[in-house]
Amino acid sequence: MRSLRFIAAEALVSHPQVVQQSLDGVAHNLYPLLFKASYLLEQAEVIRVLLEHWPLEEFRLSALLGPRSEPTEDLRDRTCRACLEACVQGLADHVLRAGGPRRLRVADLTGVRDVKVQQCPCGRALGRWGRTELLARTCCRLQAESPGARSPVRVLADLFVTEGNFEVVVQALGPADPAPLRVHCLSFRADSLGPSQLLQVLRLAGPGELRRLEVVHNVRLHAGHVQWLLAQVGFPQLASLTLPAKAFDAPPTSTSAPDGEDPLLTSIAWELSQMSQLTELSVAFSTLTGKIPKLLGPLRTPLRTLDLANCSLNHADMAFLADCTHTTHLEVLDLSGHSLFVLFPSTFFRLLSRAAQTLRVLTMEECSIEDGHMSMLILALSPCHELCELRFLGNPLSARALRRFFVALCELPKLQYVEFPVPKDCYPEGTAYPQDELAMSKFDQQKYDVIAEDLRAVLLRAGRGDIQVCTPLFGSFDPDIQETSNELGAFLLRAFKAALENFSRALEQME
Fold it and tell me: How far apart are CA 132 and CA 126, in angstroms?
């Protein structure tokens, strides 16, 4: 129930002109309340004027929108374009405002969540890439309008940099003179950049404060680049690291050491071991056969998140995972792309039994799990009472096996979300696994709908209607990919064109 105070705040911000006329008489401790009311009602004009006159030393967006502020409604998943643009414009107005005391020292714009469906009245989101460009362009404009400004405001931000906004971000991060808004990056995502561009922008972003680094998709790194990046830049506060596919491949010009040692891997592992805060590591789609002990063994802190999807792990790797100290701390684990019950049945069982007390999210996509493995899978998952999310798309399971599995899943008290595969009954007989995208989409939709409804009925009969189940054939919603799909598509086309041109030149030279 909303308090009388908040109802009054909503009434006030519904009249922007009244707010502007009466703001001088508003107590400073009411500004956060007026801000949340304005954000809820999408009163962008009021948000902008509140930020322009913000009387407090700190403005922390996540705290203002979160459930601990009045009212308890959580608005952090509303990345409303109108409201967020008003926030940044209001900050610009604040630092340019002439006369009067200015107390604002820190503006924290982090902590909002990008979701598929916006609940704000306009329904228009401003994603992480868009927020990065907006902030960068605003900083550049202020550098031109107010060079050498007094008492700059420290802006904490999550940045998403691609080729499309690289230049403006570099300009915003590296002004020659003191700037009114100084950007400090806590989380950094990079896509469609070259290695040298990545190094340049990371150095400017302040790696000493960086907590989360995601280098993904179209950033072409090999092990030499990774070692160079970690050694040259340094990330003492880094808690989460994601590297792109093939990031541990040897450089094209490298030669194998005579003793079989991999000096680059040894150096990378040493650099990672110097990160005393590192608890999340994602190295999916890198060939790490036999390398997991050397990579993870030196780490100082136990990992809570580990993504080793499609890393071609062998028995030694799995044995290390099953017995290492990381396992008893793991909360999120992805082992997709490995034949867990064909190649490592006992080892995987031991791994899950040791991780059972902490594991919240488990992903086993395309792991060759078949009907005959169901008893072992159920037994392995039975002690995982903390499990909240389970994903096992791409496994050749029948409707009968899935029904049996869903009965067992009802016994996991905290389970809330399950992604299950299209039953193999819905595909033509003899369909091969793993499937490509074309084969994956050619199934009997009517038969699938009947089976899916039956599986939901299993949950309902057990009183577990709280478990959400679905089959996202082409992966879960990724707001960052959604936002930059056009740019990344163009990047891929240019890369494909360049590859064709190189191939053509090579043919000409051969002739």
Answer: 10
Q: Which amino acid is at 6?
A: F
**Residue whose pair of structure tokens reads 């970690």 in the numeric block:** 230
Q: Please answer whether residues 35 and 6 qualify as being in contact, where contact means their C-beta atoms are separated by less than 8 angstroms.
A: no
Give me the percent of the chain exceeding a pLDDT of 90. Answer: 75
The residue type at 223 = A
Mean predicted confidence (pLDDT) in 211-232:
93
HSE-up of residue 217 (Cα within 13 Å, Cβ side): 20
**Orientation of helix 374-381 relative to helix 345-355, angle to 10°:** 20
SS (H, E, C) 237-299: CCCEEECCCCCCCCCCCCCCCCCCCCHHHHHHHHHHHCCCCCCEEECCCCCCCCCHHHHHCCC
pLDDT bin (cut points 50, 70, 90) of residue 276 is very high
**CA 200 to centroid of chain Cα atoms:** 22
pLDDT given at position 259: 61
pLDDT at res. 176 = 66
* Half-sphere exposure of residue 22: CA atoms within 13 angstroms, side-chain side: 13
Distance CA 294, CA 266 (A): 7
Q: Is the peptide bond before 383 cis (omega within 30 degrees of 0)?
A: no
Read off the pTM. 0.91
User: Is residue 378 within 8 Å of residue 408, measured between CB atoms?
Assistant: yes
Token pair of 26, please? 């508003």
151 neighbors 106 (Cβ within 8 angstroms): no
> How many secondary structure helices (H) and strands (E) does the chain include?
20, 13
pLDDT tens per residue across span 238-272: 999 999 999 999 998 766 666 668 899 999 999 99
Q: Using DSSP, state whether 385 is helix, strand or coil.
A: coil
Residue type, 200: Q
> Of 155, 128, 160, which Cα lies nearest the Cα of 142?
155
